[in-house]
Amino acid sequence: MLDVTVVLVDNGMPTTAIAPLEVFGTAGVLWNRMRGRRTQPRYRVRTASQDGRTVRTAAGVGLAPDCSIGDIDHADIVIVSAVGVDLEADCPAHAALYPWLRNWHDRGATVAGVCAGAALVAEAGLLDGRPATTHWGVADACRRRYPQVRWQPERIITESGNLLCSGGVYAGVDLSLYLVEKHCGHRVAVETAKALLLQTPRYWQMGYDMEPPEAAHSDQRIYRVQEWLFRHFAEPVRVNDLARRAGMSPSNFARRFKAVTGESPLNYLHQLRINASRHLLENDLQSIQEIANAVGYEDVTHFRRVFKRRTGAVPQAYRERFGISDANQVALTGRTPHR
Q1: Which PROSITE patterns does this one have (predicted)?
Q2: CATH code of the domain made up of 220-322
């Protein structure tokens, strides 16, 4: 069982603390209970504030922590909830938090900033030279205050090593479910989302993701191609065109791409497309043909073949296992699912 500490801070939105509490606290529990199965809690969750006192949120709601940050003796995951929009005033007010965050990061804990909580992680100096996202409303202020951070506010989630950030207020749900999947597997993450009547995380959705897969390398020309693929994977893609983007011959490009990512360019593209299609299948929004077209496959038979090779199941069987129920789909979207 992993220990999660959710850090409560003043002047932020309470949802950025409460949503992670609910996701981690119900993982392995709520779905099993609803199905009459033995519960299997996956996380021990605690809340802590800088000094152990109640914090006052921007919504006027007070949140009372379990303890102060100094009382935390073990943490596998640290979630930093959102601070207020006045970074010049709010960030210095949490000075005691920053050495504490650096200490837990150095000890191997995963540190994640939700919404404007990313500014507090940046204030601790942990995001320099790394990609990070935050709420669009504080993105410019973050760029001015932390120019060494690679701010990407268009992203829902960013991940670099054991540092994560999520975008808007409710992106804390996406980040929390992503970590549940990472630690507990896809099935537990989907069941947790179903139990809370949530869509599965939007990092599987087209246009959104964490740091591109296998991007932790220093080959900037390959990295730029990965970034482009990340945004354009649903478009027609040819390896020769990617090689031109990298300024290399096709053979040299293919060799260098596989050397740093572990995948050929074509297999890498397929993985991006299949990840996006999984999200759409899980949320029952479109027909199989529509999903195939949406992620870049014109031939639905080819899509089915690639999907099965990557996931071990055909799309319809995957939907039946992981998709939300018809009643829940109507509750979420007002739409009747396609078959």
Answers
A1: HTH_ARAC_FAMILY_2
A2: 1.10.10.60
